[in-house]
């Protein structure tokens, strides 16, 4: 018997990329009070709310709630839940003072497993159903993350972090052992269920040229691998990279020369890029995982989203916890709005939501799989309350038009608003005490 579920609510998704500044856009698909039909974990169709689903379909009636594709966080660190909100430093000091000590705990299997379970549950509790994740240098930390995501049927991209210099003893690998660990993890996890392996170079300063070359060779040897790293986040970091790699034209060029730039490359930050770097992004198809919360918290700088996109670079949105201060993609969208506002640009609700759903899916090469309510796509979705308190209720009631309402919703909503998160059509998160009406 196929598993058949019909979800009723206000469906919002995208069919194309919204233009900058447009509060009315044909890229938006808004279907208030509709049924979303889900068969065996995939979208089977959509029909108006007044038209009952076929006989025998289980019904979850979320009338009056917003149903969105699950959010995609394209850059986040699982072990760094333990360092969120660490006071007083910029990137390089922050890594040494807080982050490296916390990551060293993940050498222990029990710590890594408990941390991975805590992390994926925390993602789901914020409405994030897909993520591109940094664990730690320890093989066991990647294994634990793969296992916990697999258990929940989640799409997850991760890989053991590569770092063989400029880090404490218990956080360094070496080229030979790291390559062995990567190959073992790739063979066991890459393409298993909804999991993908990412060759995970922490950042240029913590890998030797030999390790970067090994990472590039892995990308070439195994089709479909992702590559994730950090680039041009902080001015002191950029200066250090120029000292370490004088032969490279730019920070990003260090990765290009090592064969690490391709359409499955996810580079966090990209604040201090030049036109040549943006052209290289376009030519390779690599994306920038814009991490506004982290950039503000660590005082790194203001990313120019519009210029990057105008140059043909793909941009997705990321929390970058624990540099970022919240796993919420809604908080991240609001921070992105503020970062653009500081540069005289305005990010619409549509650009923000698109970047966290269909836009990220397409940038990851998963546009046929997740990110929109198209027949055949995985039913990874979230059910949201429009308001969680009287202030938000009033704000929703006085909003004029859909853009105003959704923008104010992004601004005011948080995890209190999340009623349920479904992964492949199964509720993997339900708010405690929530009034989820299951109609037989
Ligand atoms: N650059 C290298 N490692 C990190 C990290 O863990 N967080 C951030 N924000 N930047 C980095
Ligand atoms: Zn990061």
Automatic annotation (TrEMBL):
Gene3D superfamilies: Metal-dependent hydrolases (3.20.20.140), Urease, subunit C, domain 1 (2.30.40.10). Its EC number is 3.5.4.3. It comes from the Bacteria. Pathway: Purine metabolism; guanine degradation; xanthine from guanine: step 1/1. Catalyzes the hydrolytic deamination of guanine, producing xanthine and ammonia. GO terms for molecular function: guanine deaminase activity; zinc ion binding. Residues 67-425 form the Amidohydrolase-related domain. It catalyses: guanine + H2O + H(+) = xanthine + NH4(+). NCBIfam families: guan_deamin, PRK09228.1. One of its GO terms (biological process) is guanine catabolic process. Belongs to the metallo-dependent hydrolases superfamily. ATZ/TRZ family. Its cofactor is Zn(2+). This is Guanine deaminase. Keywords: Hydrolase, Metal-binding, Zinc. It is an enzyme of class 3 (hydrolase). One of its GO terms (cellular component) is cytosol. Binds 1 zinc ion per subunit. The gene is guaD.
């Amino acid at each position: 018997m196929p598993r058949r579920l019909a979800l009723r609510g206000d469906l919002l998704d995208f069919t194309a990329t919204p233009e900058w500044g447009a509060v009315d856009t044909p890229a938006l698909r808004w279907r208030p009070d509709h049924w979303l039909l889900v068969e065996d974990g995939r979208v089977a169709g959509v029909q108006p709310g007044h038209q009952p689903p076929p006989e025998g379909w289980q019904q979850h009636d979320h009338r009056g709630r917003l149903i969105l594709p699950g959010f995609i966080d394209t850059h986040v660190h699982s072990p760094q839940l333990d360092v969120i909100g660490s006071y007083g430093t910029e990137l390089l000091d922050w890594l040494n003072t807080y982050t490296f000590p916390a990551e060293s705990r993940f050498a222990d299997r029990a710590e890594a497993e408990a941390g991975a379970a805590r992390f994926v549950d925390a993602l789901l509790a914020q409405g994030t159903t897909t993520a591109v994740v940094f664990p730690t240098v320890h093989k066991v930390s990647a294994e634990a993350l793969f296992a916990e995501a697999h258990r929940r049927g989640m799409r997850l991209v991760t890989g053991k972090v590569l770092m063989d210099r400029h880090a404490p003893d218990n956080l360094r690998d070496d080229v030979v052992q790291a390559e062995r660990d990567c190959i073992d993890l790739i063979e066991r996890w890459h393409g298993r269920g909804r999991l993908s392996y990412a060759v995970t170079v922490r950042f240029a300063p913590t890998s030797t040229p030999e390790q970067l070359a090994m990472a590039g060779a892995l990308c070439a040897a195994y089709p479909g691998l992702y590559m994730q790293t950090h680039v041009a986040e902080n001015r002191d970091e950029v200066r250090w990279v120029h000292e370490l790699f004088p032969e490279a034209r730019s920070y990003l060029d260090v990765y290009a020369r090592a064969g690490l730039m391709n359409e499955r490359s996810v580079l966090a930050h990209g604040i201090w890029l030049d036109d040549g770097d943006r052209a290289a992004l376009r030519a390779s198809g690599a994306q920038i995982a814009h991490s506004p919360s982290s950039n503000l918290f660590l005082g790194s700088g203001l990313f120019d989203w519009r210029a990057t996109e105008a140059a043909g670079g793909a941009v997705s949105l990321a929390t970058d916890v624990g540099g970022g201060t919240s796993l919420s993609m809604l908080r991240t969208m609001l921070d992105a709005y503020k970062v653009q506002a500081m540069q005289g640009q305005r990010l619409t609700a549509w650009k923000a939501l698109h970047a966290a759903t269909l836009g990220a899916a397409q940038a990851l090469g998963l546009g046929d799989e997740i990110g929109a309510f198209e027949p055949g796509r995985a039913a990874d979705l979230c059910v949201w309350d429009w308001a969680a308190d009287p202030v938000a209720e009033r704000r929703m009631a006085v909003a004029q038009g859909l853009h105003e309402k959704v923008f104010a919703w992004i601004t005011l909503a948080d995890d209190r608003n999340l009623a349920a998160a479904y992964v492949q059509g199964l509720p993997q998160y339900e708010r405690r005490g929530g009034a989820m009406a299951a109609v037989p």
